[in-house]
Design goal:
Shape: rod-shaped
Distance between the termini: 210 Å
Radius of gyration: 62 Å
Number of strands: 26
Strand order of the largest sheet: 10-17-16-12-13
Strand content: 25-35%
Helix content: 25-40%
Structural class: alpha+beta
Largest sheet: 5 strands, mixed
Number of helices: 6
Length: about 425
């Protein structure tokens, strides 16, 4: 019987819990609830200048009444804990919140790099020896955004720009800006901006931000793009009409990157350059300088031409123009005078013909025969012809009684004369 009792005692000792566990169970049973402080996050990454919240819940024995709660930083053994809101560094930047459901929260505004500490929650009850500290607490990391990218790329290459942080933000959405304006047409993957085929237009100032905190942008990063000369232009000075004997200067410009090193001038049809340098001057210009000129702009990445037409106005061409104009005007005036003369001559002839036809209709047929006989020597005898010629030689041309005058100019007919000698 005794052996049976000894065996039962040994079994109860082996199955009995250790003394500390029995003490904790007794404490929990006596006071109803244990102490606990739980944080939603053990580590938080915040942007410099932003506002951050640290949240959690706590429990305490039901027999105790909570008189005060506050936050403090970096607990040190043996050093009195200080309410964070009473430190001048955090004055006006921190706020504490608690509710009846035992939720607590810390709001920290205008986060600074020097705020990187461990933040802990402290509970003070109605019993002096019944206080609780929630450590380890929440570790705060503070970061700034910065763009990591090459300083310079060549046109046609690819380039990746990365928005970097020193700690991991919670579910960030990255936004990219070029020259202060949001980029919407480029490829953005996570925190990277991908430029597939770089062109000269991609050069500029790039920055990034996180959605919800767009006013906390990164410092700007300048991206330079190397490219061959573009938009080569040529100007003439002085502008306006170019006359023989004057001087002109042709000037070439381009926006290549790096800047154009060599400018070379050619004239159309020429086998060799006519000049070099940013400008090309022609002194005492002549008509031989007329033609198309080329400016070749060249840098380390290529070359491009610009053209300009030079037209020289010679003095000879002006004189020739005046002479031609005078001749044309003279010919025109003479032509008009001749035309008028012909018109009046034809008009007079037509009037005379009409008058003669009218007289012929009214004349005596016999007189017409006499007139015909007088005008046609072949119709007269040789003696009559001789007599007529002798009379012409012996009489005065102005004698109105001359028989030939009467015969030739006074035909008889119905008492009318074409011409009268009276």
């Amino acid at each position: 019987m005794l052996k049976i009792l000894q065996a039962a005692v040994m079994r109860s000792l082996r199955t009995a819990p250790p003394l500390p566990l029995v003490f904790l169970l007794m404490t929990a049973g006596a006071f109803g609830t244990e102490w606990s402080v739980k944080y939603n996050q053990q580590e938080i990454c915040a942007l410099k200048g932003s506002t951050v919240f640290m949240n959690g819940t706590f429990t305490h024995p039901k027999r105790l009444t909570v008189n005060e709660t506050f936050w403090f930083i970096d607990p040190v053994k043996g050093v009195e804990l200080t309410d964070l809101s009473k430190e001048w560094v955090y004055s006006g930047r921190v706020k504490f919140f608690t509710d009846d459901q035992k939720h607590f929260s810390l709001k920290l505004s205008d986060v600074m790099k020097k705020d990187e500490h461990q933040f802990c929650f402290r509970i003070i009850t109605n019993e002096e020896k019944e206080r609780w500290t929630g450590c380890p607490g929440v570790q705060l990391r503070v970061t700034e955004l910065h763009v990591e990218a090459p300083e310079e790329v060549t046109e046609g290459e690819t380039a990746d720009l990365t928005c970097k942080t020193t700690c991991s933000l919670t579910d960030p959405t990255f936004i990219w800006y070029k020259n202060g304006r949001p980029l919407t047409t480029k490829t953005i993957e996570n925190n990277q901006l991908h430029l597939q085929t770089v062109s000269s237009e991609d050069a500029g100032s790039y920055s990034c931000a996180v959605g919800g905190s767009q006013h906390f942008r990164s410092t700007a990063h300048s991206l330079r793009v190397r490219y061959s000369p573009k938009r080569v232009s040529v100007s003439i000075s002085p502008s306006g009409e170019i006359v023989e004997g004057s001087s002109v200067t042709l000037t070439c410009s381009s926006d290549g990157n790096p800047p154009v090193k060599n400018y070379t001038w050619f004239k159309e049809g020429g086998a060799s350059p006519v000049g070099s340098g940013h400008s090309y001057s022609i002194i005492n210009i002549t008509a031989d300088h007329t033609g198309l000129y080329f400016c070749e702009a060249q840098n380390d990445h290529g070359a491009l031409n610009g053209t300009v037409m030079v037209t020289v106005k010679t003095g000879g061409s002006v004189v020739l123009y005046s002479v031609v104009l005078s001749v044309v005007v003279g010919v025109s005036l003479c032509g008009n005078a001749a035309l008028l003369t012909v018109v009046f001559w034809m008009r007079g002839k037509r009037q005379k013909r009409n008058l003669e036809e009218q007289d012929d209709e009214n004349a005596d047929p016999k007189a017409q025969d006499d007139t015909y006989t007088a005008l046609q020597p072949s119709a007269r005898s040789s003696d009559d012809v001789y007599h007529t010629l002798a009379a012409v030689q012996s009489s005065s041309p102005d004698d109105p009684n001359r028989e030939e005058y009467k015969t030739m100019y006074r035909p008889k007919g119905h008492g009318q004369n074409i011409l009268s000698s009276d």
